[in-house]
Amino acid sequence: MRNNSIGLGIANGVAAGALWGVVFLAPAVLQSFNALQLSAGRYLIYGLIAVALLLPRWSRLAPRLGRAEWLGLLWLSLAGNLVYFLLLATAVQWAGGAAASLIVGLIPVVVTLVGVREKGAVPLKQLLPALVLCVLGVALVGYEALLSEHLATPWRQRVIGLLCAFGALFSWALYSVGNSRWLARRPDLSSHDWSLLTGVVTGGLSLLLVPGAFAGSSTHTPGQWALFWAISAGVAVVASIVGNAFWNRASRLLPLTLTGQMIVFETLFALLYAFAWQWRWPTLLEALAIICLVAGVLMCAHAHRTPRAITEHAG
After folding, report:
1. Cis previous bond, 27, omega within 30
2. Could you tell me which residues come within 8 angstroms of residue 15 by beta carbon, excluding any fewer than 6 positions away?
3. pTM flag (> 0.90)
4. What's the pLDDT band for 95 if we cut at 50, 70, 90?
5. Cβ neighbours of residue 21 closer than 8 Å, sequence gap 6 or more
6. How much is the pLDDT for 310?
7. Residue 115 φ then ψ, to 5°
8. Buried (b) or exposed (e) across 210-240, using 16+ Cβ within 10 A?
């Protein structure tokens, strides 16, 4: 039963990663729009959709939510959505999609280091080789990004972009750990409802971005705005609604140390989309980084399945 649960959790994690990967592509496609505009557009639509989906059962759901839940949703929305995406969009536009996605790929390392303190977690000693491979992969791509010839941004701007990517990394790691703990604390709330509640709060917070994002932004043509809202809506539905539902399901099925590793699939799909958008193959260093990240995840998954999973199943 334990192995089946882990297999299903990994499948949900892969699905979430495939859908979340489009988040890295949107800032590259919409280069003429800044990070603030991208965040406001995406999360306004996310909030509206979440409200529409929750309305039919709001009367049954609302009494089960107290002050603690709303405060929890508030900081989760900031860390996992608004702050994260603002930093990520800046990183993609200034340091490149490949570099940003691979640095954010360090999230498994951060989450796993937190998760080893959880009860029943796999010891850090068993996970260390996997974590070393992840760190090596990110170091390779960071070096590649600073020397990259296919980026049009100045060298100093790339450095700031890389710093934003690390900021996004820690913001989302904080969200991942906190979200997993909230889901464990409130098993009576479905993963989908929790995702939609996060969307409602995120949508409300995004209203604060509207004045700065859209005031005096008349430099874009109607066609550019049509593309902007179409992509914002697509990202909101694909990544925020459907992707988050898969992620919350994975978070309930997997231990925190393995949940963190699933975020690497977002990195891999983001890389695939970035290379397709740029019409190029990965460089040697990028290819080595991808191999390191995939190997690290496989090693971590193996550490969780055997012998621990077998022992629990026998018990």
Report:
1. no
2. 243, 246
3. no
4. confident
5. 101, 266, 268, 269, 270, 272, 273
6. 30
7. -65, -25
8. eeebeeeeeeeeeeeeebbeebbbebbebbb
Three-state SS for 104? helix
Q: Return the CA Rg of the chain.
A: 19
Residues with Cβ within 8 Å of residue 190, at least 6 apart in sequence = none
Comparing CA positions, the residue from 170, 235, 313, 299 lying closest to residue 33 is 235
Q: What angle do CA 283, 100, 160 make, to 5 degrees?
A: 110
Phi-psi region of 200 (alpha: psi -120 to 50; beta: other; left: phi over 0): alpha
Closest among 34, 166, 155 to 99, alpha carbons compared: 166
What is the Cα–Cα distance from 146 to 240, expressed in whole angstroms?
31
CA 240 vs. chain centroid, Å, equals 10
Phi-psi region at 101: left, alpha or beta (left = phi > 0; alpha = psi -120 to 50): alpha
291 vs 136: CA distance, rounded Å: 10
Nearest to 286 by CA among 275, 296, 278: 275
Rounded to whole angstroms, the maximal C-alpha distance in the chain is 66
Helix (H/G/I), strand (E/B), else coil: 315 = coil
* Range 75-94 burial, b when 16+ CB lie within 10 A, else e: ebbbbbbbbbbbbbbbbbbb
Retrieve residue 206's tokens.
């995004």
Q: What pLDDT band is residue 69 in, cutting at 50, 70 and 90?
A: very high
Residue whose token pair is 């399945």 = 305
242, pLDDT greater than 50:
yes
DSSP string for residues in 60-96: HHGGG--HHHHHHHHHHHIIIIIHHHHHHHHHHHHH-
Instruction: Name the band, by pLDDT with cuts 50, 70 and 90, for residue 160.
Output: confident
Q: Which one has a higher pLDDT value, 36 or 303?
A: 36
Query: Quick one: pLDDT band at residue 206, thresholds 50, 70, 90?
Result: very high
Stretch 148-153: mean pLDDT: 58
